[in-house]
Amino acid sequence: EVLSVTGMKDGQFVTDLSEIDKIMIHYADGTKEEKSVSPKPTSNVEQVKEYGITDLGDVVYTPNMVVKDRAQLLSDVKAKLDTITLESPEVRAITGNVGALYLE
Hints:
Elements lengths: L1 E8 L2 E2 L8 E6 L4 E8 L11 E3 L6 E2 L9 H12 L6 H7 L9
Antiparallel strand pairs: 1-2, 1-3, 3-4, 4-5, 5-6
C-alpha cells in the first residue's frame, strides 16, 4: 500500500513539482524506494503535468498541481497595489496605527 509519493530533483526533496527527475514512494510497511521519472511530452489535460515512471511501463505520475499562467493575475494585483500609499492617514485609520507615539 502506497502512503505517499514525494517529488525530488537532483536527490533533494522539492516543492516545485514542475521540474522533478525522481519520486520517492513511501509504503505502509515502512519501506521506500526511488524511481526515475521523465516529463511526458503530452498530457490528456493541458494544465496537468504528467511524468512517465521509468521501468513501470505505462504508469504515469501526476503531481498534485496544475500548471497555470498567472502573469496577468500578478500584473492586475500589482497595478491595484501600486495605487495604495502605505504611509497615509487613511491606512493608519484602518490599521489603528498612530502617526507618532510619545512616551513620557
